[in-house]
């Protein structure tokens, strides 16, 4: 009888060991999935902050974006990092959810871009656009009248005023 119970115990221990192995594998897979979700959430947050910065820059520099929906006036000029980058650990079960970010109700019309422009979103392209903007701003500044020169001229010839 004791031998029979020992055999049953041994069989049950094998089932417990198998369950522990299955649990360990599942825990590793879950940990990996949570790490991947965390990395993707970080990437979403980074891209959302870049998008917000681009919207702010367009609003500040009065750059007209082709919009299907929304208005750049909906984008706040001061960046609220706590609100925009708040960690999103949701649900009662404690699982991490994909990050939801503020889009300000804006939808950009990308159909007006050429295929080449859509494909090329590199930092070189951004730098090239920034250089063009700086060049145009420089030209605008050169066209503006030099108020100090006018004042100096008037002060040099007080009898003419």
TrEMBL record:
Keywords: Cell cycle, Cell division, Coiled coil, Mitosis, Nucleus
MF terms in GO: DNA binding
GO BP terms: cell division; sister chromatid cohesion
A GO term from the CC aspect: cohesin complex
Coiled coil region boundaries: 2-50
Annotated transmembrane regions: none
Keyword Cell cycle: yes
Top-rank taxon: Eukaryota
Keyword set includes Nucleus: yes
Full protein name: Uncharacterized protein
Native organism: Suillus placidus
